[in-house]
Protein backbone atom coordinates (compact mmCIF):
# COMPACT_ATOMS: atom_id res chain seq x y z
CA UNK A 1 0.00 0.00 0.00
CA UNK A 2 2.83 2.33 0.82
CA UNK A 3 4.50 1.71 -2.57
CA UNK A 4 1.19 2.23 -4.35
CA UNK A 5 0.65 5.48 -2.45
CA UNK A 6 4.10 6.72 -3.34
CA UNK A 7 3.56 5.75 -6.97
CA UNK A 8 0.22 7.56 -7.13
CA UNK A 9 1.77 10.57 -5.45
CA UNK A 10 4.61 10.59 -8.02
CA UNK A 11 2.15 10.28 -10.89
CA UNK A 12 0.08 13.13 -9.49
CA UNK A 13 3.14 15.33 -9.11
CA UNK A 14 4.22 14.46 -12.64
CA UNK A 15 0.79 15.36 -13.98
CA UNK A 16 0.85 18.64 -12.10
CA UNK A 17 4.33 19.41 -13.46
CA UNK A 18 3.26 18.59 -17.00
CA UNK A 19 0.17 20.74 -16.64
CA UNK A 20 2.24 23.61 -15.29
CA UNK A 21 4.73 23.26 -18.16
CA UNK A 22 1.96 23.19 -20.75
CA UNK A 23 0.26 26.19 -19.15
CA UNK A 24 3.52 28.13 -19.16
CA UNK A 25 4.24 27.17 -22.74
CA UNK A 26 0.72 28.12 -23.77
CA UNK A 27 1.01 31.45 -21.93
CA UNK A 28 4.31 32.22 -23.67
CA UNK A 29 2.77 31.32 -27.02
CA UNK A 30 -0.23 33.56 -26.34
CA UNK A 31 2.00 36.42 -25.23
CA UNK A 32 4.15 36.03 -28.34
CA UNK A 33 1.06 36.06 -30.53
CA UNK A 34 -0.27 39.14 -28.72
CA UNK A 35 3.01 40.95 -29.36
CA UNK A 36 2.84 40.04 -33.04
CA UNK A 37 -0.75 41.24 -33.27
CA UNK A 38 0.04 44.53 -31.59
CA UNK A 39 3.16 45.05 -33.70
CA UNK A 40 1.39 44.14 -36.92
CA UNK A 41 -1.88 45.25 -38.50
CA UNK A 42 -4.15 43.71 -35.86
CA UNK A 43 -4.74 40.45 -37.68
CA UNK A 44 -1.75 38.51 -36.45
CA UNK A 45 -0.30 38.25 -39.95
CA UNK A 46 3.45 38.77 -40.13
CA UNK A 47 3.73 38.69 -43.91
CA UNK A 48 3.81 41.68 -46.28
CA UNK A 49 0.61 43.71 -46.70
CA UNK A 50 -1.60 42.94 -49.69
CA UNK A 51 -0.85 44.72 -53.00
CA UNK A 52 -4.00 46.84 -52.80
CA UNK A 53 -3.04 48.19 -49.42
CA UNK A 54 0.53 48.91 -50.56
CA UNK A 55 -0.80 50.88 -53.52
CA UNK A 56 -3.21 52.82 -51.30
CA UNK A 57 -0.42 53.67 -48.85
CA UNK A 58 1.82 54.81 -51.71
CA UNK A 59 -0.91 57.06 -53.12
CA UNK A 60 -1.57 58.56 -49.69
CA UNK A 61 2.15 59.24 -49.18
CA UNK A 62 2.47 60.92 -52.57
CA UNK A 63 -0.69 62.95 -51.94
CA UNK A 64 0.64 64.09 -48.58
CA UNK A 65 3.94 65.22 -50.06
CA UNK A 66 2.47 67.00 -53.10
CA UNK A 67 1.46 70.59 -52.47
CA UNK A 68 -1.66 71.78 -54.33
CA UNK A 69 0.27 73.61 -57.06
CA UNK A 70 1.86 70.37 -58.23
CA UNK A 71 -1.52 69.08 -59.28
CA UNK A 72 -1.39 71.52 -62.21
CA UNK A 73 1.22 69.44 -64.11
CA UNK A 74 -0.77 66.33 -63.24
CA UNK A 75 -3.89 67.89 -64.77
CA UNK A 76 -1.83 68.95 -67.78
CA UNK A 77 -0.61 65.38 -68.19
CA UNK A 78 -4.17 64.07 -68.04
CA UNK A 79 -5.12 66.50 -70.83
CA UNK A 80 -1.97 65.77 -72.83
CA UNK A 81 -2.75 62.06 -73.17
CA UNK A 82 -6.12 62.41 -74.96
CA UNK A 83 -4.98 65.58 -76.74
CA UNK A 84 -1.74 63.97 -77.99
CA UNK A 85 0.28 67.12 -77.25
CA UNK A 86 2.81 68.37 -74.71
CA UNK A 87 1.30 71.86 -74.52
CA UNK A 88 -0.99 71.04 -71.54
CA UNK A 89 1.99 69.72 -69.60
CA UNK A 90 3.97 72.90 -70.38
CA UNK A 91 1.03 75.06 -69.34
CA UNK A 92 0.61 73.10 -66.12
CA UNK A 93 4.29 73.45 -65.29
CA UNK A 94 4.13 77.18 -66.01
CA UNK A 95 1.22 77.53 -63.59
CA UNK A 96 3.14 76.01 -60.67
CA UNK A 97 4.86 79.29 -59.55
CA UNK A 98 1.61 81.24 -59.76
CA UNK A 99 -0.30 78.66 -57.76
CA UNK A 100 2.49 78.45 -55.19
CA UNK A 101 2.43 82.21 -54.77
CA UNK A 102 -1.34 82.12 -54.30
CA UNK A 103 -1.08 79.33 -51.72
CA UNK A 104 1.65 81.09 -49.74
CA UNK A 105 -0.28 84.37 -49.84
CA UNK A 106 -3.38 82.64 -48.52
CA UNK A 107 -1.39 80.97 -45.76
CA UNK A 108 0.20 84.29 -44.79
CA UNK A 109 -3.24 85.91 -44.64
CA UNK A 110 -4.57 83.18 -42.35
CA UNK A 111 -1.51 83.52 -40.10
CA UNK A 112 -1.98 87.28 -39.98
CA UNK A 113 -5.65 86.94 -39.07
CA UNK A 114 -4.91 84.43 -36.31
CA UNK A 115 -2.28 86.75 -34.86
CA UNK A 116 -4.73 89.66 -34.95
CA UNK A 117 -7.27 87.61 -33.02
CA UNK A 118 -4.56 86.62 -30.53
CA UNK A 119 -3.62 90.29 -29.95
CA UNK A 120 -7.27 91.16 -29.31
CA UNK A 121 -7.54 88.28 -26.83
CA UNK A 122 -4.31 89.40 -25.16
CA UNK A 123 -5.67 92.90 -24.61
CA UNK A 124 -8.88 91.56 -23.09
CA UNK A 125 -7.15 89.09 -20.76
CA UNK A 126 -4.55 91.68 -19.73
CA UNK A 127 -7.27 94.19 -18.89
CA UNK A 128 -9.02 91.59 -16.74
CA UNK A 129 -5.80 90.71 -14.88
CA UNK A 130 -5.02 94.37 -14.17
CA UNK A 131 -8.57 94.98 -13.01
CA UNK A 132 -8.24 91.97 -10.70
CA UNK A 133 -5.43 93.76 -8.84
CA UNK A 134 -2.26 92.37 -10.41
CA UNK A 135 0.72 94.56 -11.21
CA UNK A 136 1.19 95.27 -14.95
CA UNK A 137 4.27 93.06 -15.30
CA UNK A 138 2.69 90.13 -13.47
CA UNK A 139 -0.57 90.65 -15.35
CA UNK A 140 1.26 90.55 -18.67
CA UNK A 141 2.95 87.26 -17.75
CA UNK A 142 -0.39 85.69 -16.86
CA UNK A 143 -2.14 87.11 -19.93
CA UNK A 144 0.49 85.80 -22.33
CA UNK A 145 0.25 82.32 -20.84
CA UNK A 146 -3.54 82.38 -21.24
CA UNK A 147 -3.92 83.97 -24.68
CA UNK A 148 -0.60 84.36 -26.49
CA UNK A 149 -0.53 87.10 -29.10
CA UNK A 150 3.15 88.08 -29.00
CA UNK A 151 4.38 85.56 -31.55
CA UNK A 152 8.13 85.54 -32.08
CA UNK A 153 8.57 88.53 -29.76
CA UNK A 154 7.16 86.73 -26.74
CA UNK A 155 10.51 85.89 -25.15
CA UNK A 156 11.78 89.48 -25.37
CA UNK A 157 8.56 90.97 -23.99
CA UNK A 158 8.37 88.46 -21.14
CA UNK A 159 12.01 89.05 -20.24
CA UNK A 160 11.41 92.81 -20.13
CA UNK A 161 8.32 92.36 -17.96
CA UNK A 162 9.98 89.87 -15.62
CA UNK A 163 13.29 91.69 -15.08
CA UNK A 164 12.17 95.32 -15.21
CA UNK A 165 13.14 96.08 -18.81
CA UNK A 166 11.54 98.47 -21.28
CA UNK A 167 8.28 96.69 -22.03
CA UNK A 168 6.93 99.28 -24.54
CA UNK A 169 10.08 98.97 -26.66
CA UNK A 170 9.77 95.16 -26.66
CA UNK A 171 6.08 95.42 -27.57
CA UNK A 172 6.86 97.83 -30.42
CA UNK A 173 9.46 95.39 -31.74
CA UNK A 174 6.95 92.51 -31.57
CA UNK A 175 4.41 94.68 -33.43
CA UNK A 176 6.54 94.45 -36.59
CA UNK A 177 5.15 90.97 -37.23
CA UNK A 178 2.30 90.82 -39.77
CA UNK A 179 -0.99 90.96 -37.92
CA UNK A 180 0.53 92.14 -34.64
CA UNK A 181 0.14 95.86 -35.35
CA UNK A 182 -2.23 96.17 -32.40
CA UNK A 183 0.74 95.69 -30.07
CA UNK A 184 1.78 99.27 -30.88
CA UNK A 185 -1.41 100.44 -29.19
CA UNK A 186 -0.66 98.16 -26.25
CA UNK A 187 2.83 99.67 -26.00
CA UNK A 188 1.33 103.18 -26.01
CA UNK A 189 -1.18 102.25 -23.28
CA UNK A 190 1.61 100.73 -21.22
CA UNK A 191 3.84 103.79 -21.55
CA UNK A 192 1.03 106.21 -20.66
CA UNK A 193 -0.01 104.11 -17.66
CA UNK A 194 3.54 103.82 -16.31
CA UNK A 195 4.69 107.39 -17.03
CA UNK A 196 1.52 109.31 -16.20
CA UNK A 197 -0.26 106.94 -13.83
CA UNK A 198 -3.31 106.58 -16.08
CA UNK A 199 -5.58 103.56 -15.81
CA UNK A 200 -4.11 100.72 -17.85
CA UNK A 201 -7.30 98.63 -17.80
CA UNK A 202 -9.43 101.44 -19.25
CA UNK A 203 -6.94 102.04 -22.05
CA UNK A 204 -6.79 98.34 -22.83
CA UNK A 205 -10.59 98.16 -22.98
CA UNK A 206 -10.67 100.98 -25.53
CA UNK A 207 -7.85 99.39 -27.51
CA UNK A 208 -9.62 96.04 -27.57
CA UNK A 209 -12.83 97.67 -28.77
CA UNK A 210 -11.01 99.50 -31.55
CA UNK A 211 -9.23 96.32 -32.70
CA UNK A 212 -12.49 94.38 -32.67
CA UNK A 213 -14.21 97.08 -34.71
CA UNK A 214 -11.38 97.01 -37.25
CA UNK A 215 -11.60 93.23 -37.51
CA UNK A 216 -15.37 93.37 -38.01
CA UNK A 217 -14.91 95.99 -40.72
CA UNK A 218 -12.48 93.72 -42.56
CA UNK A 219 -14.93 90.84 -42.28
CA UNK A 220 -17.74 92.95 -43.72
CA UNK A 221 -15.50 94.10 -46.56
CA UNK A 222 -14.51 90.52 -47.33
CA UNK A 223 -18.20 89.58 -47.46
CA UNK A 224 -18.89 92.45 -49.86
CA UNK A 225 -16.01 91.36 -52.09
CA UNK A 226 -17.31 87.81 -52.29
CA UNK A 227 -19.02 88.68 -55.57
CA UNK A 228 -15.76 89.79 -57.16
CA UNK A 229 -14.01 86.64 -55.94
CA UNK A 230 -16.84 84.52 -57.35
CA UNK A 231 -16.36 86.30 -60.68
CA UNK A 232 -12.68 85.35 -60.64
CA UNK A 233 -13.54 81.72 -59.93
CA UNK A 234 -16.12 81.73 -62.73
CA UNK A 235 -13.56 83.18 -65.17
CA UNK A 236 -11.10 80.47 -64.18
CA UNK A 237 -13.69 77.74 -64.76
CA UNK A 238 -15.11 78.93 -68.08
CA UNK A 239 -12.45 77.26 -70.28
CA UNK A 240 -13.04 73.90 -68.61
CA UNK A 241 -16.78 74.31 -69.11
CA UNK A 242 -16.21 75.14 -72.77
CA UNK A 243 -14.12 72.01 -73.30
CA UNK A 244 -16.73 69.82 -71.62
CA UNK A 245 -19.51 71.43 -73.67
CA UNK A 246 -17.63 70.87 -76.91
CA UNK A 247 -16.97 67.24 -76.03
CA UNK A 248 -20.65 66.77 -75.15
CA UNK A 249 -21.66 68.14 -78.56
CA UNK A 250 -19.57 65.46 -80.26
CA UNK A 251 -16.63 67.60 -81.41
CA UNK A 252 -13.00 67.18 -80.44
CA UNK A 253 -12.03 70.53 -78.87
CA UNK A 254 -8.60 69.32 -77.68
CA UNK A 255 -7.61 68.31 -81.22
CA UNK A 256 -8.82 71.62 -82.64
CA UNK A 257 -6.99 73.69 -80.01
CA UNK A 258 -3.74 71.74 -80.01
CA UNK A 259 -3.31 70.60 -83.63
CA UNK A 260 -4.71 73.37 -85.85
CA UNK A 261 -3.46 76.87 -86.54
CA UNK A 262 -6.79 78.53 -85.76
CA UNK A 263 -7.10 76.50 -82.58
CA UNK A 264 -3.63 77.47 -81.38
CA UNK A 265 -4.42 81.12 -82.08
CA UNK A 266 -7.68 80.87 -80.12
CA UNK A 267 -5.85 79.08 -77.31
CA UNK A 268 -3.21 81.81 -77.11
CA UNK A 269 -5.74 84.65 -77.25
CA UNK A 270 -7.99 82.94 -74.71
CA UNK A 271 -5.09 82.34 -72.33
CA UNK A 272 -4.03 85.99 -72.53
CA UNK A 273 -7.58 87.25 -71.97
CA UNK A 274 -8.10 84.77 -69.13
CA UNK A 275 -4.93 85.95 -67.42
CA UNK A 276 -5.84 89.62 -67.87
CA UNK A 277 -9.32 89.04 -66.46
CA UNK A 278 -8.04 87.23 -63.39
CA UNK A 279 -5.34 89.88 -62.85
CA UNK A 280 -7.88 92.70 -63.13
CA UNK A 281 -10.33 91.16 -60.67
CA UNK A 282 -7.53 90.36 -58.22
CA UNK A 283 -6.20 93.91 -58.54
CA UNK A 284 -9.62 95.37 -57.75
CA UNK A 285 -9.94 93.18 -54.66
CA UNK A 286 -6.46 93.99 -53.39
CA UNK A 287 -6.81 97.73 -53.94
CA UNK A 288 -10.14 97.74 -52.11
CA UNK A 289 -8.70 95.82 -49.17
CA UNK A 290 -5.65 98.10 -49.03
CA UNK A 291 -7.80 101.23 -49.14
CA UNK A 292 -9.89 99.99 -46.24
UniProtKB/TrEMBL annotation:
Recorded topology in the membrane: Multi-pass membrane protein
UniProt key word Nuclease:
no
InterPro entries in UniProt:
T2SS_GspF_dom (IPR018076)
Q: Does the keyword Coiled coil apply?
A: yes
Segments passing through the bilayer:
70-99, 228-250, 256-281
Record domain Type II secretion system protein GspF: where: 124-244
Mainly resides where? membrane
Source domain of life is: Bacteria
Q: Name one GO cellular component term.
A: plasma membrane
Per UniProt, subcellular location reads as: Cell membrane
List the coiled-coil residues: 204-231
Keywords associated with the record? Cell membrane, Coiled coil, Membrane, Transmembrane, Transmembrane helix
Protein name per the record: Membrane protein
- What organism is the protein native to? Streptomyces mutabilis
Amino acid sequence: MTGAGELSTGVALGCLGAAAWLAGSGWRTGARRARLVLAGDGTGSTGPPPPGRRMTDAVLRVRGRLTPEWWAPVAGLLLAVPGDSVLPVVAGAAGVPLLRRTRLSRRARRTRERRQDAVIALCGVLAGEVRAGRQPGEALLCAVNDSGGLGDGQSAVLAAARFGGDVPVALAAAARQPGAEGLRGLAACWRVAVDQGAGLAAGLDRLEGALRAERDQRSDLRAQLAGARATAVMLAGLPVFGLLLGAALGSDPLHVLLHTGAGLGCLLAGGVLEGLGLWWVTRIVRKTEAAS
